[in-house]
Design brief:
Elements lengths: L12 E6 L4 H15 L3 E8 L12 H19 L3 E7 L8 H14 L3 E5 L13 H17 L8 H4 L10 E5 L7 E4 L4 H9 L2 H4 L5 H16 L7 E8 L2
Parallel strand pairs: 1-2, 1-4, 2-3, 4-5
Antiparallel strand pairs: 5-7, 6-7
Protein name: LmbE family N-acetylglucosaminyl deacetylase
Pfam families: PIG-L (PF02585)
Keywords: Zinc
């Protein structure tokens, strides 16, 4: 079965909302490279700077935050993305709050995306790493920001009154890291080398990993098999929600 091909005449604005630097590159790096290659506008929203990450105890947490911002910028450049929104929330301490919802609604109203891609708001009991509490908190807060916050002109009224950010309705949300729950797949075979290069740009997080390329190939191949794509194809899967 050949992968579904998008309409090349429809140019979209796509906003990815995740908890940490490198989350996008692990889960959606091939998709991002594919989308930018097709001419879509892609922007990132990173809720934390990833200051609680890494393995070097000799580096301070503010230094780690600065390093991870730099790494994410380098990775984004590889995938053709130049617009990044860093919110600076504390790594490892995220919860779904009114303030986080407001901050995400602010970014959505600024970017005005057709599609939001975010993390799953529900815990996957078969995947401890995929169910990091920061990930599920961001997934839930992003869904709240999509509906009702960003589209409701009376929600977070300061966004309009003080910042001039008018309400915006996101047409669709794509949830990543859903495993068997995926119902749509992006063929990422031709983007695989760029995905790996983007992950390698996160040196503080991936330099210690044995066979990073092999791991990503295996994961992409399993997704492609679930999609019914042909032999030796790679994919990234999503649950696609109509949020109009």
């Amino acid at each position: 079965m050949e992968p579904e091909q998008p309409d090349p005449t429809e140019q979209l604005t796509i906003l990815l909302i995740v908890a940490h630097p490198d989350d996008i590159d692990f889960g959606s790096g091939g998709s991002v490279a594919t989308w930018t290659g097709e001419g879509h506008r892609v922007e990132y929203c990173l809720v934390t700077d990833g200051d609680a990450g890494g393995y070097d105890e000799g580096i301070s947490r503010p230094e780690m935050a600065a390093l991870r911002r730099e790494e994410q910028g380098a990775a984004a450049d590889i995938l053709g993305v130049s617009d990044l929104h860093f919110l600076g929330w504390p790594d490892g301490r995220l919860a779904v709050t009114h303030e986080l919802r407001r901050d995400l609604a602010r970014v959505i109203r600024r970017v005005r995306p057709d599609r939001v891609v975010t993390q799953s708001p529900t815990r996957n009991l078969r995947s401890m790493y995929g169910s990091h509490p920061d990930h599920t908190a961001v997934g839930e807060a992003a869904m709240c920001a999509v509906y009702p916050d960003a589209r409701n002109p009376f929600a977070h009224p300061e966004l309009l009154a003080e910042e001039g950010l008018a309400a915006h309705t996101v047409s669709e949300v794509w949830i990543s890291h859903v495993g068997e729950g995926a119902d749509h797949y992006v063929d990422t075979t031709d983007a695989f080398d760029r995905k790996v290069a983007a992950l390698q740009a996160h040196k503080s997080q991936t330099a210690h990993m044995d066979d990073l390329r092999g791991r990503m190939w295996g994961w992409g191949r399993s997704q492609a098999k679930a999609a019914g794509f042909g032999a030796e194809r790679l994919a990234e899967g999503y649950l696609v929600l109509d949020t109009r």
